[in-house]
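Minutes, project check-in
Item: structure for the 398-residue chain
Input as provided by the requester:
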Amino acid sequence: MKFWTSSTSTRYRWTAILLAVLSSFAGVSLLIDRPEGTVIEWLALPLLAVGGSVFAWFVWPRGASSSQSVVSIATRLLETLTLKGRLLRLFPVAGVALVLVDLGYNLTLSATPSLQTEDIIVLSAAGCFMGYGFVPAKFARERDFVLLFFLCLNGILVLPILAARAYYADFERSIDLYSWVALAPEASAILSLLGVSNSVHAVLGSTAPGLTFVPQHLAAQVTVVITTACSGIYSFGIFASAFIAFVLTEFDKLSRRVWVLLGLGLLTAYLANVLRMVIIVLVGYYTDTAQTDLQNMLIAHSYAGWFIFLAWVSIFWGPLLRLLPGTALPASSAPVEAVRWRTGPPCASCHTPLTPTIPATRCVCGAYLHLACGGGRTECPACGKHLDRGLSRMIGES
């Protein structure tokens, strides 16, 4: 008995993609920004395995021809950066060079040669360069997404820190400018609006800002030092990098709508990060007593940030994946026999509306399918019946 058909896969496609996105985000977040001393830090690799497995089963193309590529901003950008592909053969060399540079930095400039967060980010990008050429062409979109994600992550989280440390000539210095400018004042203002008296000030012996408040059930003041590690900047970097890579691989041009979408994603990710800090302080303000001795706030510090981050990813990416599946168009390598459609119904595979520029066919059940989406399919994704493109009626055929 056949329990799973392509129509079933299509029906649950967006649910599966959201599950894969959440699992992958959770795994990367735990790998890069580990809440040390907690149980959940050991879930990084299992979550990444679950995310990759769901992507492989539901999302990645099956039997697609390597010639049926998709033209997007990412493909054009990578083509320019690699001089029309001539530099691709040097990607493994670039990967090995990144590994050597990171090891050299740890051995000569860093007092802590063990692998830190920035090292993991750099080595992940190195792995992408070394493995880029081994990924089949039919997985080009996924391959480019992962590469651009780690490049953006290095650009957001690693390069600014290295530049600041070089400027101060102190390669062990913790850079807490983000906490001073974009987190502590905003969190303090929201807490004040909620009736929690607090103040932001410098802390002796630290370059990070301190936020002082008096818990409701305690008489003593409590100061939370918002360092770079606990500021949530890593979670913001993960979200921002994934969102930028998503836009570059899913859209074929930077229209006004895409710019608005990109700005909205980055702004809301930042607001979610401020909310994370506010909630941690509120937990300490309302729940801590002399008996708990601020344990509730410490627990919230270890767990709340991760759960808030995942909740935000779910809230934002859920509607996004359903409403904006992407506008990248298949490359012009489809057969000439396809007929144009003025304003078409959605494709049964990718669910994007048919347009006059995208060749498509129609199954006997009435479902429409882009030729590029059909690839090597033998069954209709809508009804599961055998799909014979030679006998199927073309769109617009009378």
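Outcome recorded: The longest helix spans residues 256-287.
No further action items on this chain.
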